[in-house]
Amino acid sequence: MRNADFTETDLREANLRKADAHGAVFHRADLRMADLRGTDLSTANLVEARLRGALASEHTRWPADFDQTAAGVVDTDDPGPEPSPLLQPPGMTWQAPPLRSTP
Description:
- The chain is mostly loops.
- The protein is built from one helix and two strands.
- The chain has one helix spanning 89-93; strands at residues 55-56, 74-75.
- A two-stranded parallel sheet has the order 1-2.
- The radius of gyration is 14 Å and the shape is globular.
């Protein structure tokens, strides 16, 4: 995600856990309820980003002047190591639940 431009992108409930977002632009992006635990946003542009309900942990890195509490970010525990990226047979047939957010 380095240097990617997500201006005005809908990333509600996205799993961005432990992503490297150095230099990424989230100007006016919708990140409500996104999983940002362990994500490095230290040099990201979060101007006017919507973050209410997004999850963060002690390992999430924010820009120096960013107030995650005022933005409505929820601090929670880090999930630990990521699972194997290989799909196991039960994972191939699992149906994802509908999104919880509203427009």
